[in-house]
Records
---
Amino acid sequence: MKLQDEDRYDEMFWPDGTVRPAYAEFLDWYNKQDPAWLRKKDKEAERVFRRSGITFNVYSENAAEERLIPFDMVPRIITAREWRRLTRGIEQRVRALNAFLQDLYHRQEIVRSGRLPVEMLQSNEAFLPQMVGFIPPGGVYTHIVGIDLVRTGPDEFMVLEDNARTPSGVSYMLENRETMMAMFPDLFTHIPVQPVSNYPRLLARSLDACAPDCAAPQPTIAVLTPGIFNSAYFEHAFLADQMGAELVEASDLRVIDGRVAMRCTTGYQPVDVLYRRVDDDYLDPLTFNRDSVLGVAGIMDVYRADRITIANAPGTGIADDKALYSYMPDIVEFYTGEQPILKNVPTWRCREEESLRYVLDNLAELVVKEVHGSGGYGMLIGPAASRKELERFRQKLRANPGNYIAQPTLALSTVPIFTRAGLAPRHVDLRPFVLVSPEGIEITPGGLTRVALKNGSLVVNSSQGGGTKDSWVLED
Amino acid sequence: MLGRAANGVYWMSRYLERAENTARLLNVGLRISVTRGADSTQDDEWRSVLVTTGQDLAYRGLHDDYESLQAFNFILRDRTNPSSVLSMIESARTNARMVRNSITSEVWESTNECWMQLSELLTRPVREHNMGDVLAVIRQLTTQVRGAIEGTMLRNEVFNFSRIGTFIERADNTARILDIKYYVLLPSLAWVGSHVDNAQWDTLLRSVAGDRAYRWLNKGTMDAKGIAQFLILDGKFPRSLIFAYNKIMSNMSGLAREYGHEAPSHELVRNRCARLHQANIDQIFESGLHEFLQNFISDTVEIGNAISADFKFVE
């Protein structure tokens, strides 16, 4: 689908075609470069990514294939002023999320107060009874959060979704910056950009700070990956490497003497903090999915005895639920006593009769998403859908309304990408990465900008043809 | 270090070594087939390469004859053949990817690059006129990986496991190559010392890149005992059996120093290494070269298994 040009907000250019202040210096630099040289650099970037194996795995019917996430070399630029406002909003939201999760697994005050219907929990598979009454080491539920933001105007950033389970993409934030600095060092000597390279160190520090009491003075951190065939394997290896942590698979771990220990060449050694990149379901075959070969038998018992920290805590995935998302403004207000700084995208819950009727009547204008879906799968973009698709979705909605929410089709902001013909606007979103520890909340300036590479497309997911950009927050 | 990572580094190195040795054997096969003349009916060179590398059975399941180009491509690039050079480079790369945090980024990138370039180069079957070029590229790429290991890795447990993998594989491969000469290529004792015999010794030396060194040391005389002595017991030649065992021994000592104690397999290596040092070539020929090599090959397997168990490579 294509939005009318006057509807969309372009982050680089004013409607009259002149450049906005944030991008002035970049554009000045860009205009001085030889286009042929830029095209050559563009090609080089791909080779660099492939050579260092910055790939994600895609599974088709025939074979696993390692693909690159296309990288666009025009940065996405955010001013220091814009960023300050965003960080206040993000911090407030993440504080509320952690308070909400703690409440959810204890007294459920928010349900008692009538602000959240109890069905939101009862029917939710991401709610883990095993977590009831238990406080994770350090009192932190979501050690790492990714908040997906979209922009629709000068000061209008909205939260599209919360990723509290296992947000991914941070390695691209870091590698994109490295690549840009290697390709265009002179850009960074002219334009003051806030660095992102601290992230792995801060991540290690926050995980350290959440270590259980029994941990060694220098806690042992391990990153748990499903293995080299997982689509995000590169990121798992990258983060472990950058933190100086071990990269482990389930087959390396077992419970010994009440601790989770990893099989080393000289014997089993206890793990203090496990940054797991496997879903709750696969964590412990004794507790959850019995067929899981990705998990560690008995780890939940060790966890509940405070002998290991699991990040993020099991059961946090409930906060990613898209129906629950629609209650976030209430949740923020309930736990912080403040008005939410960041807006939600208006959301119709199809489980509510009146909303369902509205959604069915206006399907062609709406975006419909599955409540538990992710990665851009199983969604309908009304304005882009054919009559047949709309009809098929109408039936799905009627059959199982509780499984869906709907949102207006947003005029996502655009940032230009580099093409052979020059700069061309494309829709973007932004995922800043947030670290939570007992010492406080850290937000790395910038995040991952995803960009829909197809002209007019609104889908930025890498699994569906999206690319990424380096995201800059300017110094004051 | 994780046992699984030690296993990965060990196998990465084994696959690289085996791929390189297989490429060397292909070079020998190629050389024989171009030097023996068009009228010869002997097609033993490809069969012997297939038998040496344990691929003959799989090959015969697919093909009826040992036609040069067909055998060459099977050994070089057949993806259904897990022992093809391409499959082994892929296995080396998969292991490297699994342990990429234990190796330096230069080692990972050179291994990845090796795999990327070979996959691209071998997308289509190799034609007669570029068989030699392809082998040269493989030698170059694997040499780069070795250079990256040598030049960038810390001399710690990771390096020692990598080297142990290299030398266990090399010991095995050299022993197999030598054995094949005696057991397969020269079925009749009457041929010993014949023209054919000498030509075969020459190609055998080439396959382990030892032809020039041997001639230099022996002033050009080719004889079975001299060559066997060279490949088994010459501690100066980097592809000899004794050289490989000496290296395994020194890497085991490196591990013992780092860990503060010797693993049980250390004693086994010491014992087998000492046995090799006591051997002399006359005795070996007297009691049978083939039996000696078979014993050596199973000793090497035993050492590999013992090390794998001691250092918890697998659960």
Note: Chain A touches chain B at residues 50-53, 227-228, 233, 237, 240-241, 246-249, 251-252, 262-267 (CB under 8 Å).
---
Amino acid sequence: MRPAASVLLLTTLTGFAYGLLAWTGVYALLGLLPAAPRFATAGTTLGLLIASFGLGASALHLGRADRAWRAFSQWRSSWLSREAVGAVLTYPIAILFLLALRWDHGGIAMRLLGAAVAVMALGTVYCTAMIYASLKPIRQWHNPHTAPDYLIYAAFSGALLFALLHAVLVGGSAPIFVIVPMTAAIALLAKRAYWRHVDAQTPFASLASAIGLAKEVDVRALDAPHFTENYVLREMGFTIARRHSGRLRRIALGLAFAAPLVLSILAGLSMAPLAATAAAVACAALGLLTERWLFFAEATHVSALYYGRVV
Amino acid sequence: MTMLPTALPGAKRLGLVIDLDTCVGCHACAVSCKEWNSGGEAGPLPDYDPRGSEPDGVWFNRVHSYEAAEQGCSRTVNLPRSCMHCEDALCVTVCPTGASYKRAEDGIVLIDPEICIGCKLCSWACPYGAREFDEQAGVMRKCTLCVDRIYDKSLPEAEREPACVAACPTRARHFGDLGDPESRVSKLVAARGGKDLLPELGYRPTNKYLPARTARIPTASKPAPQEGDGVGAALLRLLDRVLSR
């Protein structure tokens, strides 16, 4: 599948943003927020801001962005529509939460709204993941790993941003500096489990069944319909750089999860917490973009079978 | 509305039956489709760089050719590929806007170009690669089963069939109601063992493909070049070397 920059930005940025909103909400619910009220305010505002950038980037993916409002209508059947509804509903709830942070800090309204923000944020990430997980022609997406993985990466990247805010506004010693390495380790293991799964996966279909023949028949493509590329091949037959996937996978694991894991432990040990966390966020952002690029670039689509491609 | 319609008892399920035994891969159906849909209600169908070195554009129907080998015999299989108007059309349910829909009355899957936002998700959901993006209009396009033709009362009744069916010189394409077991196309499917493409994905396509006959003539394996030791063979080798200069 062609890794479109708009979609890579959307899923990576919303992962950071909704992860941050979720951790802020959970901290509020449990009454664990640092005493300074500006911390949660900053976390929520930053979360909404980054989410807005991600959602803005996704609009660039549309052929007719002027009609984007129509995407809110089909939530009964479409995960994309549910994602859009979830993303938009998160705003008013997060704004109410911001008001509660100011007028009811530590009170029951703040706690409940914090919980609501966390539910909306994680729910939106889940909808994003299900867009991919529900696509039956793509075996690398249509599997039990996709949905939990997106939630894990959001929890990890959000926790990392939360830790950065903490280092900036409060200081380097807090439970979040234990949470970050834990989520980083879980994310790393989840990504490795995902790659093990897709590497061992049997294809969903063969060229023989694609053209209505029994699977014993040995089929090869002779002539494509046209001599040149077309939309289906450009969008669904993306094959560039698959041969570098081994190196890119190592880069993704190292940058996205391993480096932030080590850096956040250093930060937790009060060794230059601000610099270490900031570097961890930068690594994670680059690493997750690489990871997301691979998630698309390595995904194969059944329709490419018709062109004799391996899927 | 992108919920799939509940199938009404006795509702029509219009679709195509394509005979892979008689299809000669001439692309007439694809060209005729392109021609009709460039001018009909679905038009214009965009072409990018049509006279350049990398021509490209939207086609609703594309014809592939394959070699199928079985037990030492091989044959050519030509496969016209277009929208299957599936019963479980994932391209419809994933649509966030309601632009992609399946008609309750005849099962035709269509796109409303006035509503489509061009998110391309429906093309990702289609295992048959039947949907193509219109870069000029910014919306997705697909086969309409010539809905602007098959119901057109101003056409003589014999012409109320999809352009691809009308164009086929070998009568390999048949159009009709696959929801009615007594229809000509349903009987044809039953008699010839019509197949779904990619049945394992569970989209329940309406279009059916009649299988090509099994090849019975063994594919001749190339005889190994005869090499002898005699004077004749030595002369031939010499001749070969001379001629190869």
Note: The longest helix of chain A spans residues 108-133.
---
Amino acid sequence: MIAEIGLAALWLAAALAVLQMISGAAALRAGDGSTHPLAIYARPAAIVQAVLAVLAFLMLLRAFAITDLSIKLVATNSHSMKPMIYKLTGTWGNHEGSMLLWVGVLALAGGLLAGLEKRLPERTMGATLAVQGFIALGFYAFLLFSSNPFERLPVPAAAGIGLNPLLQDIGLAIHPPTLYAGYVGLSVAFSLAMGALLTREVNPNFARAMRPWVLGAWVLLTLGITAGSYWAYYELGWGGWWFWDPVENASLMPWLAATALMHSVSVLAARDALRTWTIMLGVLAFSMSMLGTFLVRSGVLTSVHAFAVDPERGAFILALLLIYIGGAFTILALQASAVSEGKRFAAVSREGALVFNNVMLSAILAIVLLGTLYPLLAEAFDARVSVGPPYFNPASAIFAIPMFLVMAVGPLLRWKEDKPARVQFEMLLIAALLIATLAIVALAGDYPLLPVLGLGLAAALGVAAFLPLRGRKLSRVPTAVWGMVLAHFGVAVSLLGMASEGAFTEERLAAVAPGDTVEMGDWLITLDSVAPVAGPNWTAIEARVAARLGEGEAVTLTPQARNFWSPAQATSESALLTRWNGQLYAVIGAQTPDGRWQLRVWWKPFVTFIWYGGLLIALGGVLAIVGRVQVDVKRRKAAELGEERRADLAALTPEPAE
Amino acid sequence: MKAKQQRMVLVVIAMVAIIGAGLMAAWALSNQANYFYLPEQMAEAPPEVGQAVRLGGMVQEGSLKTEADGVTVNFRVTGNGEAAIPVRYSGILPDLFVEGSGVVAEGSLQANGVFLATNLLAKHDENYVPKELEGMTQQQAAKMAADTTVGLQ
């Protein structure tokens, strides 16, 4: 029954998406002031659809929880012996389940938009919901026609195949759902942008309605990327935290676009400038999340994440991508001239700095996009290439470095017009910090160029982030400004982690017999023993490694080489020792013919700051949302109060005699 | 400056930056892209010494030798022809790396004709095959499929 309820809910939700589209379009066609009889259905349709899509997802979750082996998806991706938590996370550890999650979140976002957003004119809202329904419909079709998660097996399987062990990890529980929620939040931003464009309502009011969605999506993307990076770091056992893997890039590209969009929507809300640019970024951000979905879901790229390989599905998503994005750019081209120009500003102004960084972010996006797609293009011409850090690192740094410099100064500038001389002291301070750090690091040793620049920029940015608070009474600083300060500081923290990992990492690789000690920097690493251990669905060789810093206490690390038996696969479980100033990372390898064990250890100074920085950035985003909502609530209350007073006044004033 | 002019200036600046990024990407890609070689291709037309490339093929049976330090291995990679390229690698071997299995080695050719690998990619689960190995001969593909298919058909 579970599968049938889920499937029925999906079909009903698809039907409601059609209704939402028609009703929204009706609202759009009705002139200002008048209402179309069909227009009243858009909001309820979106809300009921959200309930149904979430119900369908819950049904699949239930099927995985009880390991219903008559459902094909469960039989091929789960196993009754798996721990409960991984049974549940396994729901979205496969193609169909993750697409259902995508659609569930999409419908939920649409429902929330329909239920909560009351500020926009009805026509704009109708157009927005129509676009949202159109997007949802495409994905319902995709699920129902080419990746039905509820397909039954003619004969129930005796045992499930299991879940890829790399994915049996708590990282999987957090990483994809957050990313999907972020992607989908951008779909709402896209729908709003289309709605505003179609009804020519591109104004600060619209920007204020769009901003929480962009901020929310951006926070979720930030968290998703941070979690994904940490997951790859400790689960893959290669000691790296970012591989420029196409799947990672697929999540980075929407983030870059969303970062630009978030800043430009703020300019639109505060200053009524950058109208068309904001709309274009809205389209771009959603295009990138669609492209990300296409790259990951189509199996067009083979990478560690590629657990779905099916060309038919790829073609389907590609068609959806072309319809939505092609359609959006057509509408943009037709309507752009109808969007009147926003307010002007000088080159040296806060808007100017934001525009500069928007352009830099777009350039980085172009670099990442081309690098990600190049191997696919080359393959069409029968050349097999791969593109890695030697391309991505320097090419993106060329645009990232000026961006960071402008980012340090930008928040200090005034809106509309400013003189560089006014922020002379701050600029000198930032430059002094940058140069001093560069000089110290360059004198201290021979390190690669990019990490050294990163350290200098991190020092300058870390201080610059707090400069906007200078001369202000801290208790009166708006919450949203705290959000900005925190997020910018988070960038500095993250940059410090990346640069310091790049410059100062120490590594030791050796074959050791139990009892042997190797030296790495100030660390003494002793292999105590190696013993077999077993878990619920794996067996492993576990090494006990004692790590000692100088004369300090020894800490035991237990890296494992695991063998899973369903599906059969070997993974390497790294062991981490976290200190405030870095992490010790140990991996155990194979036994050599003479009975020694391969041991690889790294000392990565301040590597954890990469992810702390990511969390700070996300927290900054959350504060910004809270701040905006506070201001909104205050404004609404003030407006209500004003109306009451006016009504009172009107009641007190005697009616003029007829 | 009128609002319309300002918009034009902004559009031009953005276009210049993004086209610049595109051109730079194209230039950097042509220099930095990591080309893939099969053993016979590498034997016939070797890449420049020190240039980062990828070499993919099968680990030749009987060629895998571990050096005295316990972490450096030497082996030969063969493809469809006679050519066999000697590879040297220091590090922990991928989980399912054995003689006769498919491998992609990232690294560069040394002056002495040995391919010095900085990273080895082997199939590390039953679904994942390094993309470059997908076009191998039928016999090899069948062999690979036979020892990688588990469970339901």
Note: Residues 609-652 of chain A form the longest helix (44 residues).
---
Amino acid sequence: MAASPDIANSPHAQPASAVMRIAGLSKRYGEQRALADVSFDVRANEVLGLIGPNGAGKTTLLETAAGILPAEAGEVLWRDVPLPQAHRRNAIFYLPDRLRVWESQFVVSVVEFFASVYGRDPGRVGETIRLVGLSPVLRKRIGALSKGYGRRLMLTLALLTPQPVLFMDEPFDGFDLRQTREVMRVLRDVARHGRSLLVAIHQLVEAERVCDRFVLLADGRVRSIGTLDELRTRSKQPSGSLEDIFLALT
Amino acid sequence: MRSPETAAPRHITTAPLLRKELREITSGRALWTMLLVLCPLVGYSFFQAAALYGEASASARDSPVLASGLSPLDGVLVPSFGALYLGVTLLFPFVAIRTLGHEKETGALRLLVQLPYRMASLIAAKLGAISVAWIIASLPALTVLAIWAALGGHLYAPETLNLLLGHLLYGLLVGSIGLFAAAVSDSAATAAIIALAFTIGSWILDFGLAGQPGLLDWFSRLSLTHTVRTFEQGLLSVSLLLGIAAAIIGFAALATVWLHPGQQLLTKLVGSLITVAVIAGALALSSQIRTSIDVAEDRRNSFPAADQRALAELHQPLIITVHLVPEDPRYVDLRRNVLSKLQRAVPDVTVRLAVGAQTMVGGTSDEAYGDVEYAYGASSARSRSTSHREVLPLIYGLAGKPLPPPIPGQDYPGYPLEASGALPLAWFFGALPLLVVVAWWWTRRAPRIPRYLSQEGGQL
């Protein structure tokens, strides 16, 4: 596998206009508050990192915004127009973390299922398979895949979907260092080709390398939003890492 | 509102979804295990039924009267298909639950609900796969028909198809209950408990409440076993047919309401209430339909053909007042031998129960207890008989009609057959299970990789 380009120093896409706005999203699990009045924009062609420690509410935020979980309050707007829960799947595809689905099925069957549902042409499917490196396991059952190949399959499915916004929960889990850098390159490519990505990441080093902007989340609240430079200014740490900034702002 | 246009595919077909559901249901162990259990179960039931039928046939060798009582429907088909009923009741819920419960447990449902299908389409595809699963599961019972015919046994197509229809509807009903149970539960284990509460609960309703007075009797009629019983008796009831269809659609609709994890609980509850109300209305309407067809070759659900024709010409209301409690065996006899047949034959007939319930000591204060009063036009008459041979002449008398002459050649001849079911045991205990294992293995083969996917590559 070829070494990836230096993602950290690559010129990230310039922030463009917001395509989606999450406004005042709140969610409780019984007495426990999971999200409190969460609001931010997702811009066109950007990789937006959702940063927070375990239990910060990242997964809950992704699931409520995608309409997979009901929210107590708040809304999602698509180009300033409210997007009801039932219509969100037209705009967003959400790839949950640690999925190992349809284990008795073969990899090729599930890939073909997604491709036929979305009417993807064979060339596009083949290209995606090769891009993600899924070819060696196409005839394997999903239940027999290693953790890494399981993640590649899920990434393939997400890449076959056409929604303009892609939510991904911990996309680098299960990949080694080299694979992680390749996934980063794939995600950057996806963003460059027209999709916006909201990516929940708890590994801050990876997040710093792949994301254009960051939403810092702690205890279900948004603590800060911005590019790395903006966050450095806000935290008064001109050369601080994302980790330093996160600790300073949360 | 303006929805993102770029993502929604313009032409959505359900074919990929249906193919995926079929692969899911056939790649799991539940269906094949059920099939393997059913092979010997159906086989032994058939063996026993054929043996008993053979013994009865031997006794009837020189007696046409005894032979006329030998119906393959009662003697062979119903007992053999009884094993299928048992399997569907106890095992099929697990097959149905797997189609959804497994996806809920693994998180696949979170991907599925994001696909561009309506929730109803997702459930319909699963119900379609469950229907195919029922057909596969019923193969041992279906081979009974072929074996019985090969042994020289008689099959009357209308009653046989009617029996198959009854079992299919029962299978779909159990399947839709399984889907509903999986939709409302977080785990497959909870779903199994809910589904079995319906199926095994029906047996409790049957054994515990049947024949009890009042509300308990009404509850006993909710038993799922009624679904099959009427079809086993060779009766195709439009009311029952529509009622079961409404129940299947109702459970599937409830499963649809509860499918999406992103719906608020209140929305689901309101949706459920509306669904239940609509289905209850449909059930109430269907229960008003009296049309039914006696498809049994021996016409057990009808009077002799001459009487059927004569009774169809009684255009005035026939009012029957029964001075019996519902749980009285005489009422059960009267209902089976006379009332249900009259309700099918006479255009306008009303049956009233004059006695509501038995007294504490088991008797009743009604002096006319045991009487059945028949009123037609201005005339009326009483009888205590539960046989149509006495009741019909009485009704003809009230209507001023002569007794209709019997139509010759209408008697059911009976179909005795002294065949041994021992040889077919080898099929059910050996060849068929082997075929099932081979079919199972065949479904587990890795598919071919299309050329456009087979080129090596990959970056990760």
Note: Chain B touches chain A through 50 residues (CB under 8 Å).
